[in-house]
Design brief:
single chain, about 80 residues, mainly alpha, 2 domains, 6 helices, rod-shaped
Length: about 80
């Protein structure tokens, strides 16, 4: 997959997939999976938010959790905290 990404500026992706006998869908799925780094970051934020909530007698609002996360260097919206 890295070979295709490195040469995408020079050759078309479908042509490289055909030569390498790799389905295009496999290539594009691998790109999407790499974007899952975002969900890993979300799990870190979720753990931190839950720890803050539990350590404060489970009475913190999303705004206060957001402020604590911002103090720790994690930028998160209040809506996202509400979803977690």
């Amino acid at each position: 997959m890295e070979v295709i990404q490195k040469n995408a500026h020079q050759y078309s992706v479908p042509a490289m997939c055909k030569v390498l006998k790799i389905p295009r869908s496999t290539y594009y799925d691998s790109i999407k999976r790499k974007d899952n780094k975002i969900t890993k970051d979300d799990s870190n934020v979720e753990r931190a938010a839950i720890n803050i909530f539990n350590s404060n007698r489970k009475v913190f609002s999303t705004r206060r959790i957001k402020n604590h996360l911002n103090d720790k260097g994690l930028t998160v919206s209040g809506q996202k905290i509400g979803r977690l």
